[in-house]
Every structure is written in structure tokens, then in C-alpha cells.
Amino acid sequence: MQQDKMIRHSLSLATLFGALFLQSYAYAGPIAMAIHGGAGTISKANLSPEQEQAYREKLEEAISAGYAHLKQGGSSVDAVIKAIQILEDSPLFNAGRGAVYTWDETHELDASIMDGRTLNAGAVAGVKTIKSPIEAARTVMDKSVHVMLSGEGAETFAKEQGLETVDNHYFDTDFRLEALKKAKAKLERDKTAWERPENLDYKFGTVGAVALDRQGNLAAGTSTGGMTAKRYGRIGDSPIIGAGTYANNASCAVSATGHGEYFIRYHVAADICARVAYQGLSLQDAANKVVKEVLVDADGSGGVIAVDNKGNIATPFNTQGMYRATVDTDGNITVAIYQPKE
Ligand code: ASP
Known about the structure:
Layout: H1 2-26, E1 32-40, H2 49-71, H3 76-88, E2 109-115, E3 121-127, H4 133-143, E4 148-150, H5 151-160, H6 174-189, E5 207-212, E6 218-224, E7 245-247, E8 252-258, H7 260-265, H8 268-279, H9 283-298, E9 302-308, E10 313-314, E11 321-327, E12 333-338
Parallel strand pairs: 3-4
Antiparallel strand pairs: 1-5, 1-11, 2-3, 2-6, 5-6, 7-8, 8-9, 9-10, 11-12
The chain binds aspartic acid.
């Protein structure tokens, strides 16, 4: 009897260890992540060493926070949120604090997030008082039956969900106000200047993150103040699933930054993942094709960060620079701003 009991006991221990082994095996997939802080006319000549240092430090802080979460076995959705919130809280980037000004000297923020495992997604557009638009997007994804909420409705929803709200002036910065005045002066002289933002010396400061977690789940998120001097409730690509943000475990996760009108027309983020899924292109080839050929032919400036379900990373852009950071499957962190030859 006693021996029987012992055998049963050892068998259940073996089952327990087996289950634990299988569980840790299932958690052993590669992890990788990339973030961006916008693209545009960014060159060594127009960035002081101190400014460059400040951008590099903030990018490193954000990717390290996301990566630490992935390393502990955390989800790609949480890693994306953690990294983006650090960038939203920094006045250096055009998202959250530091958001650009509309024509009317206010701030209207857009954000979206997508979970590549479920294809669930959430977005907010044109919100004025939500402190962390990416958190609001996530709450739309998790706590509502909708994908995108806009304006006052989105703000009411955020308040009902207990999210932090702030006065619109919380997003004010002197240098963005200066940028608005310059952009308005140029736009008043030439209404078509908007068509070629590089003529406005434009820097897209949108922030975004993409991640692959140990469970093989991809996620992408993007948060922005949109484009300087936007008016009439203009919404860009950042809150539009498939344009500025897309994630699908079957292919890849993408977050974009650039001239939103073009990214919407060419549904850039989804197009890159579709080329991976249906054409069998590598992530790098698919991303290069869309950013360096399709968008360039159309005159659409900007760039993307992308990660696929094996942890490959691509960060192509067709502008002078793009604030970005990556962490590859070996854990190497790279922070960069200018074209790769830097
Ligand atoms: N894509 C954003 C928009 O068009 C701008 C940016 O990337 O900075 O709203």
C-alpha cells in the first residue's frame, strides 16, 4: 500500500515537472523590439550635441523599459505601452507632452494599438485632455466593443474608465509654438506647402513601438500630436489600423511615422505585413519596398519600424533621419538617428 502511494506520488511529481518543463519551453521564444520617435529633416547640422544626447538617452530609456518587460516574460502589448508612455511623457517628442500645435494653437492627439495574437485593436483620435493617449487606445481595445473613438466621446469614455485627464495646456512647449508660427507663415504664403512637408523643414515627432514577446505574440502601437498647423479636425495615419499601426502574429508588427495622408492612402503598415504574408518577402525587403519605392514614388515622406514573428527587425525611412532604437534577439540595443552610414 505504502509502495503504491509512493509510486503515485512520484508519478504526479513527474507530471508536475513535465508540465513546468513544457511551460518554460513554450516561453522560450525569441524576443525583439523597436521604437521610433519620428522622422524628417533631422541631420547632425540641425541638432546640437546636447540635443542629440537627450534624444539618444530618452530612446534608450524607453527601449530598455520595454525590453526589461519582455525579458521577464511580459506581453508585447504591455512592452509597447511602457515604451510609448516614456516617450509621451517627454517634451522631446510629438506625442503626449510636446505634441505639436493645431492651426488654432491647441493640441489634438491620436493613438492606436494592435494585438497581433487576437487582431484586437484600439484607437483614439482628436483627443484634447487625455494625458496618455496610448493608454486610452489600449482601454478602447480591452474595455469597449469598438476599435476607434474620437473627440469628446473618447474623452467621456476615458474619464468613465478612470484614466488621467489634464488641461490642454499641459501639452504646451515653446519650441512647438515657434514651429507652428513658422509653418503658418509659410502656409499663408504657399497653401500647397502642406503637400511637401520637407519644404516646411518638417520633423515628424510621432512615437511608436513594436515588439515580439516570448509567447510569439506581436504588438504595435503609435501615439502622436499629428502634424503642425493641422486644422478642421484633421486625423492622420497614427490612429488608423492598417495605416500607421498594424500587428498580426502570422506576419509582422509595424508602427509608422511620416506624412499621414500618404500613409493612409497606401495603408502602409498593413501593406508591409501583407507582402510578408502573401509574397513571402523578408521583413526587410517588404518594408524597403513600401517605404523606399512605393512611398517615394508617391512623394510620401517618412519611415517605419517593424518586427516579424521570428524577431527580425527593419527600420527603413526615406527622410534624412529617424529617431529610433532596436533590441535584437541577442539582446543588443542600438540607438540611431541618421541614415545607417552614420
Ligand atoms: N504620421 C503623423 C501624422 O500624419 C505625423 C508624424 O509621424 O509625426 O499625423
